[in-house]
Design goal:
8-stranded mixed β-sheet, 31% helix, single chain, Rossmann fold, 344 residues, globular, two-stranded antiparallel ribbon, alpha/beta
Length: 344
């Protein structure tokens, strides 16, 4: 009996793209856009982003009261860190090196701006941008990952403390879309009682500005690490608020953010979503490895595209410049799409 070839779960997404773009093209454009967001932030420099092939760039900002410090109590941080410490310590987890800032290799540019790089200071931190392709074929929305200590606090300390995901974020009568990690959600929606512009507002304002200048174009959205959790919230936020039609979303080494109800709501609104993950990258499994248990309610969104790239360095395995951009650019065929059946 003949055995049929497995169905490619990404084929439907690829078929919806214009003839001038493949799914790999979009993935590489988004990964390079995320790299450009890191480079423009430049560890606190807050430069104007630039990306070859794109115009009308609108920056996105996150407000941080103390980017160089832990945003939560010392006792809470110690308790969470102790609970998260593995039996055999990870080789370089304590370094705290920004995952995109490591020197790149293999002809791939590091995601760093001009020297000297900046020093984060309290206030608005460049977190991403929107832009329109020079050929007016599409708009993009990209978010970087963790760089500051405050952002690391949101990464590490909220697991198991969940809250309702109420969207649209800019509505006075939002609906609930399941439960999400309360700290990650706070990073997205916090406006300090209207005293600052939230990341959610900055994201929605950038989308509206770009849509006004380049209307009726498809949206492609991408992010790395912490930005992956934020783009999951922002993409759903933009769709349920009516700002965009369902976009194509691709994340790299993303955190998960919500429970099964959130994941189901996300899939219903944003069916074209992919998450690229190195199986040696600890960030996508920040709480625990799947399958989900009662003590670990978090569920990733998007069709998984996994691969193995072991550098024997935790932050090295998570690097956008050294891992995710090269895999998309040079080794696309090695990505396995859909749930894995081991050994594969």
């Amino acid at each position: 009996m003949a055995i049929s070839a497995p169905t490619d779960p990404t084929s439907e997404f690829a078929a919806a793209l214009p003839a001038t773009l493949t799914l790999q093209d979009v993935a590489l454009r988004l990964a390079n856009g995320v790299c450009a967001a890191y480079a423009a932030y430049n560890n606190g420099s807050n430069l104007q982003p630039s990306l070859a092939g794109y115009k009308n760039i609108v920056p996105i900002y996150a407000f941080e009261a103390d980017p160089n410090g832990n945003p939560f109590s010392a006792s809470e941080a110690m308790t969470k860190a102790a609970a998260a410490t593995p039996t055999e310590p990870r080789r370089s987890l304590a370094k705290g090196e920004p995952s995109a800032y490591a020197g790149a290799s293999g002809g791939v540019a590091a995601c760093v701006g001009p020297t000297p790089i900046g020093t984060p200071s309290p206030g608005y931190q460049l977190f991403g941008f929107t832009a329109t392709a020079n050929d007016n074929s599409h708009n993009i929305f990209v978010l970087r990952g963790t760089v500051t200590l405050e952002e690391a606090g949101y990464d590490l300390l909220g697991w198991g403390d969940n809250t309702s995901c109420n969207l649209p974020s800019q509505s006075s009568t939002p609906a609930s879309y399941g439960l999400v990690n309360s700290y990650l959600y706070a990073f997205y929606v916090n406006d300090d009682h209207d005293l600052v512009t939230s990341l959610a507002s900055s994201c929605m304002n950038a989308i509206q500005t770009t849509s006004a200048s380049a209307p009726n174009l498809p949206w492609y959205m991408g992010a790395h690490s912490l930005g992956g959790a934020m783009v999951s919230l922002a993409a759903l936020d933009a769709v349920v608020s009516g700002l965009v039609q369902p976009p194509l979303v691709i994340t790299y080494g993303s955190l998960h953010v919500g429970d099964a109800t959130f994941a189901a709501a996300y899939k219903a609104k944003i069916p074209a979503s992919l998450r690229v993950a190195n199986l040696c990258d600890f960030v996508p499994s920040m709480v625990s490895l799947e399958p989900v248990t009662l003590s670990d309610p978090y569920v990733h969104v998007g069709v998984e595209g996994t691969f193995v790239w072991q550098t024997w360095d935790d932050w090295g395995n998570h690097s956008l410049a050294n891992i995710y951009i090269p895999i998309v650019q040079n080794h696309w065929s090695l990505i396995k799409w859909g749930p894995r059946t081991y050994p594969q």
